[in-house]
From TrEMBL:
Residues 271-276 are annotated as: Important for the catalytic mechanism of dephosphorylation. It comes from Stigmatella ashevillensis. It comes from the Bacteria. The lineage of its organism: Bacteria, Pseudomonadati, Myxococcota, Myxococcia, Myxococcales. Residues 8-134 form the HPr(Ser) kinase/phosphorylase N-terminal domain. This is HPr kinase/phosphorylase. Pfam families: Hpr_kinase_C, Hpr_kinase_N. Catalyzes the ATP- as well as the pyrophosphate-dependent phosphorylation of a specific serine residue in HPr, a phosphocarrier protein of the phosphoenolpyruvate-dependent sugar phosphotransferase system (PTS). HprK/P also catalyzes the pyrophosphate-producing, inorganic phosphate-dependent dephosphorylation (phosphorolysis) of seryl-phosphorylated HPr (P-Ser-HPr). CDD domains: HprK_C. Mg(2+) binds at residues 167, 209. The Walker A ATP-binding motif also binds Pi and PPi.
Length: 324
């Protein structure tokens, strides 16, 4: 099992995509602390001494309520409250609405080596945006050697050893109107709700290597409609060289899965040999996966009908013998 992904507190200040608008006020020595959870907390009752539900290692948001409460206390009491609070090993403190933090808060953060930041955003807006930032930053990521295609809206990841024909199959699918997501290197990331998404590596995005032709740009050759930036991976097709000694699944009754960054994705192992139209097989696999999403499992339904037919035939034979 892989260890949880973490980021440094300094990454919050470096954000350019989620408009957190953070500036450092004090506690620069706390920028090296790490975050491992996207959950945010407002200290609330913890300022009064009730710290039972205070979670360590989380971003603590001080809004108008928290700052107003601190200002009702004497400076000595503020220092006592904040010292007790910061003994809980928090991640960092963010003051919203561009409120001026009390001097006791600044000094407590410096003493505890806890980063104190400020943002002009309202607490509700900041919490929503920083959670989105953390969910993306903390998601489990990896890279796979394969090809990711969007076929009839189904994200299909093609795996197989080098030279088995993944890129040629993908090119055939593009010629049929399907869309390339990534070739050769597929960057995958787990999202919430147990979904895994794949995207092309930025260095080679929209490019494909075809032996004998070299590197080609699918977007330039076929237009923007032939590519997409990312896609949820809903089916993995592992290509194997045809081996007459090996038994292949001929019914498809039992579902198989491949673990990708902690998410079980449906897996099909498909043998490759001359004469097999792999693009057509993959199109059928995509259509079959769409049927499964709608609750229709063709192989299982066929097996059930077959079993019923066998059972009914056996029953008729039994009844016939009894009549005789």
């Amino acid at each position: 099992m892989s260890s949880p992904r973490t980021i440094r507190i300094s990454a919050l200040l470096e954000d350019r995509d989620f408009d957190l608008q953070l500036t450092l006020v004090a506690g620069d020595k706390g920028l090296g602390r790490t975050l491992a959870s996207p959950r945010i907390q407002k200290p609330g009752l913890a300022l009064t001494g009730f710290t039972e539900h205070l979670h360590p290692h989380r971003v603590q948001v001080f809004g108008n309520t928290e700052i107003s409460y601190l200002r009702t206390l004497s400076e000595a009491v503020q220092q006592e409250v904040l010292t007790r609070l910061f003994n809980e090993d928090l991640a960092c403190v963010v003051v919203t609405k561009d409120l001026e933090p009390p001097q006791a808060l600044v000094e407590a953060c410096e003493t505890s080596k806890l980063a104190l930041m400020r943002t002009p955003l309202l607490s509700s807006v900041f919490i929503q945006q920083v959670q989105a930032f953390l969910e993306q930053a903390l998601t489990e990521r990896s890279s796979l050697h394969g090809v990711l295609m969007d076929v009839f809206g189904v994200g299909i990841l093609l795996l197989g050893k080098s030279g088995i024909g993944k890129s040629e199959i993908a090119l055939d699918l593009v010629m049929r109107g399907h869309r390339l997501v990534a070739d050769d290197i597929v960057d995958v990331a787990r999202r919430k709700a147990g979904a895994v998404y794949g995207a092309g590596n930025p260095v080679i995005q929209h490019h494909m290597e075809i032996r004998g032709l070299g590197i080609i740009n699918i977007k330039d050759l076929f237009g923007v409609a032939a590519v997409r930036e990312q896609k949820k991976i809903e089916l993995v097709i592992e290509l194997h060289e045809w081996d007459p000694e090996q038994e292949y699944d001929r019914l498809g009754v039992e579902d198989r899965f491949l673990d990708i960054v902690g998410v079980n994705v449906p897996l099909s192992v498909v043998p490759v040999r001359p004469g097999r139209n792999m693009a057509t097989i993959i199109e059928v696999a995509a259509r079959n996966q769409l049927l499964k999403h709608q609750g229709h499992h063709s192989a299982r339904e066929f097996a059930e009908r077959l079993n019923r037919s066998i059972a009914e035939g056996a029953m008729r034979r039994t009844l016939g013998e009894e009549v005789e």
